[in-house]
Design brief:
about 40% helix, about 475 residues, two-stranded antiparallel sheet, 11 strands, 17 helices, alpha+beta
């Protein structure tokens, strides 16, 4: 039995499995015993109307990363004065574990053209300033993007390696709370696994009713649900806007933005996908408002796709889904961690964020993950990581990368929507996470008294990374 406070030897975190290589012909492996393999689903996605954008040759962002040529990125910030004063850039735990959130730019003879994600940010974030970065790597990068849905094992390993920073009461609370959530949701989680194995369990209406009721007790399901719908919209939309973006090698980011902000009224204040749980009728209405042509098929797609994605995100590779039942895990956290390590990691990670002392624990647990992923990116020659759930345009700066030069400017947007650098900045990328209380999550969950002398945090977070 593992004891608190002991120094344990852990294998190196499996960051390779957390990343998707879009230059590969195969998908990261999932558990055995499923009706479809991860490669089966990769084939389905590649055959979708926008499936060609999963390839490095057709996706403008992937192509730019793998050439070894200079890369141009944009970052919006309300804290330009503080950036000038400190001369430092910090990462965010909400952006690819520890990167600086950016969007791609394409250099043209008339200016820097934002990716449609960047154009959306410029329109939505009207009270921010824009920074432009030119990154000059020494070599082409692999087309590997980080999939945050597969971070469960990393969360679990980090918790085990740093349990000594928790009080006995905190540690017991995390484990008991995880067990409680499992008991509350085991029936529906087993239903998902049965569906993933090809055993149809209940009607579509009942499925969505149970899904909507389960998300509040198992918040990670809200993230999976949202990403399945985003995937469906991005791959299957054939609207004129989507086709126009696809023609220049871009996925249509406005689709999942509308999805999030339409589904959850408070999403504009805090992007929290734990609140994303539309039922069957709400789902159809939601998609009809975003892309009416896709409303008819959305329920069938989610019903088919979500169970498979849950099985992969909960169990991880090497597990046999046919041998797993969450009803038999009971309240024992160690039993859950042995049976479904990825789900155990997601549970303990999300419960830790509810601890009163989380602001003090944040630099320990989250910085450990960030430092670890920096090391992986550096070994892989990844100066500019990206959100690999899909290569849709969410990209970041690896603030620890030693083999690339990075030049920064303040930029202005002209009437044609192009960016033009106006002032070069002397900035130092620092491989350290910004303080939790300077992030949206920290401000919402752990408010502190106003301090006029305190500097704002120099970071922006990705909503789904």
């Amino acid at each position: 039995m593992e004891k608190r406070g002991m120094t344990l030897v852990h294998a190196a975190p499996d960051w390779d499995h957390v990343h998707t290589d879009y230059a590969s012909r195969t998908a990261p492996t999932g558990p055995s015993g499923l009706a479809e393999s991860t490669d089966d689903w990769l084939t389905v996605h590649q055959q979708a109307p926008n499936g060609h954008l999963l390839h490095t040759g057709a996706n403008q962002m992937l192509a730019s990363l793998t050439t070894g040529q200079p890369l141009h990125l944009m970052h919006t910030t309300p804290y330009l004065d503080a950036i000038r004063a400190t001369g430092e850039l910090h990462g965010s735990a909400g952006c690819l574990v520890g990167a600086l959130y950016c969007a791609p730019l394409t250099a043209t003879s008339e200016g820097l053209r934002p990716h449609n994600l960047g154009a959306y940010l410029l329109q939505a974030k009207t009270h921010t300033k824009t920074l432009v970065f030119e990154v000059r790597p020494e070599a082409p990068a692999p087309a590997k993007g980080l999939n945050y849905l597969r971070l469960g094992a990393i969360h679990l390993d980090t918790y085990r390696a740093h349990r000594g920073f928790l009080t006995a009461a905190e540690d017991d609370h995390l484990r008991q709370a995880a067990g409680c959530r499992l008991r509350q949701t085991a029936g529906f989680l087993d239903l998902l696994l049965a569906d993933a194995r090809g055993e149809r369990t209940t009607s579509t209406t009942a499925f969505f009713h149970q899904l909507a009721a389960t998300v509040p007790h198992m918040p990670f399901l809200g993230y999976l649900y949202f990403e399945v719908l985003s995937e469906y919209l991005l791959l299957y939309s054939t609207s004129p806007e989507t086709r126009a973006y696809a023609a220049v090698g871009e996925m249509n980011n406005s689709l999942y933005k509308k999805l999030a902000f339409t589904a959850v009224e408070t999403m504009g204040r805090l992007f929290n996908l734990a609140l994303f749980n539309p039922d069957h009728a709400q789902l159809t209405e939601l998609i009809d408002r975003i892309d009416p042509a896709l409303a008819l098929g959305v329920a069938a797609y989610v019903r088919h796709r979500l169970p498979h994605l849950f099985a992969c995100a909960a169990l991880g590779p090497g597990k046999d889904a046919a041998t797993v039942s969450f009803r038999y895990a009971g309240a024992d956290f160690d039993a859950l961690a042995a049976m479904a390590p990825y789900l155990a990691g997601q549970l303990v990670f999300r419960e830790m964020r509810n601890l009163p002392r989380y602001p003090a624990l944040f630099p320990v647990f989250e910085q450990a993950k960030a430092t670890s992923v920096y090391a992986y990116w550096n070994r892989q020659d990844i100066a500019v990581p990206f959100n690999g759930v899909l290569p849709k345009g969410e990209i970041g700066l690896n603030l620890a990368f030693p083999r690339a030069s990075c030049t920064a400017w303040v930029a202005e947007t002209c009437e044609r929507g192009l960016l033009h650098p106006t002032e070069q900045l002397n900035l130092l990328p620092v491989p350290r996470l910004a303080d939790l209380r300077g992030t949206a999550l920290g401000r919402a969950s752990f408010p502190r008294p106003a301090d006029p002398s305190a500097s704002p945090e120099l970071t922006a977070a990705s909503p789904a990374a």
